[in-house]
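Long-time lurker. I teach an intro course on protein structure, and each term I like to show students one example going from raw sequence to a predicted 3D structure in token notation. This year I'd like something fresh instead of my usual example. Would anyone be willing to generate the tokens for the chain below so I can use it in lecture? Attribution to the forum is fine with me.
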Amino acid sequence: MVNTETGRSTQLTPLKKKNGFFREEARRFKKHRSIIWFILPAAFMVALFGYIPMSGILIAFRSNFNIYGGRTIADAWASGTWTLANFKLLFQDATVLLALKNTLIINLVGIVIVFPLPILFALFLADIKTPWVSKLILIVTCLPNFLSWPIVVGVFQNFMSPVDGALNNILVKLGFISQPFYFFGSNAWFKTLVIFLKIWKGTGWSSIIFYAAIASIDKSFFEAATLEGASKIKRIWYITIPTIMPTIALMLVMNLTYIMSAGFEQIFAMMTSATRYDQHTIDTYLYDISIQNRKNVPFATVLGVVNGLIAMFLMLGGNKLVKKTLGKSLW
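-- Reply from a regular --
Happy to contribute to a lecture. Here you go:
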């Protein structure tokens, strides 16, 4: 480059960064210091309840760790030794395999049956021409979501009770069964009832996000398709579904993340003396061996760690797949 004053050519040198990474962060901290005080309480709560408890993962590598019986955590920690024997129990405990099977069956059937229902319900609501009618139906179907699982299970236990339940009385009078049947005490009906109650409680609430995605579609697309002679099914298949597909994919990733958790509150509330030992899931078995019966806290920690790792890999893998195929991701 020629200097216009001296007529000499000068060589450009690359600009050096004036500030390093830490200097840049310090500058940003100083610039936004007025709002730091609002973040500190939330950061403290996250560290207290999110990160500090993660140190309990180390219990999975200790033997004879038992905090019950009046012992302190320090005493329980000092009495044990470092070991990997707790991880070997994963392949030796028959109840773990039973709980894993029950959990996967409930969640896989849930993904096949329960997951598509909110999408279909949202399509049904979007097809209603009167806005207040669709909103009223959505509000009514969302109400069960605000009931706790013990209340929901209690209502259906009374409705299906073999003593004076309305369902049994109707079935007996119609001749479908000869005597009252205890649905909640049947292992054959347990998983079916779990799926049914999930549908009854969560379909309306889960359909809100899909209904909002459908409502955001440009109406001119449907008008143009109608002028071209496209039927309602074709408009849904070629316009609605492809448009909301990123939302469907992201919600599916979130469902896959929790494939190792069937929902502790629902399963525990539904269990009876007849189904307690045959319908264990990972969540209820964790509660059983760590809190209720106090059998093996380190082994319960192992189950929790493995469960969390599987959920993390499913979330990362599903998110990467969706980002690669659809260009959308959770982050």
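Some talking points for your students: The mean pLDDT is 85. The radius of gyration is 28 Å.
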